[in-house]
Design goal:
Length: 186
């Protein structure tokens, strides 16, 4: 299977989306991305279908590349490192915009039908869960009783995102307490 060429059309398109978000665009258009990347609009539509799918692809790629779940063998340390990485990302304009795009892609539309990019978002969640599960399996193999990935998302990740969305405190405030709670309630 061929990979993405560094500097190829996909890379240029993803870079253009990130630059537009970093400049404050709430939702760039395919035309803006095309002009910025030098990739024809038709090529963008052929590859991603719609702007929401492109933005989701960029968000997923950034999260997986820039904050993969660590796997050092020390679950508490790994959870803290990962939580700090995620909290740091959502504090940036670009990171928050990409989080918003990911959240929008997973929200149901009127009538209870999943968003067209929901399958892509589900694939992201599976990738993230798979990364985390390797570390959790190691703890279990050593005789420990680790929390489930879903529990970690609920207790650690959800508060980070809620704090970022509502801005009531820094997303990285009390991450030690959140991680300890996730590990304690297993």
């Amino acid at each position: 299977m061929a990979g993405t060429r560094p500097g190829g059309r996909t890379a240029r398109t993803r870079t253009a989306v990130r630059e537009l978000f970093a400049e404050g665009h709430d939702q760039p258009s395919v035309r803006e991305v095309s002009e910025r990347s030098g990739v024809h609009e038709v090529t963008i539509y052929r590859r991603w279908g719609r702007i929401e799918s492109l933005v989701l692809d960029v968000a997923v790629t950034q999260l997986n590349d820039e904050s993969p779940f660590p796997d050092s063998g020390d679950l508490r340390r790994d959870l803290l490192d990962w939580a700090h990485s995620v909290a740091g990302q959502v504090k940036t304009r670009e990171g928050f915009a990409l989080f918003h795009a990911l959240a929008a892609a997973t929200s149901p539309l009127a009538g209870g039908k999943p968003a067209p990019t929901g399958a892509d978002a589900a694939r992201y969640l599976r990738q993230r869960t798979t990364q985390m599960q390797r570390a959790l399996d190691r703890v279990e193999a050593a005789g420990g009783k680790p929390p489930t990935a879903a529990h970690i998302f609920d207790v650690v990740l959800a508060p980070i995102y809620l704090r970022a969305v509502f801005g009531y405190e820094s997303p990285d405030q009390d991450l030690d307490a959140l991680v300890d709670q996730a590990l304690r309630t297993t």
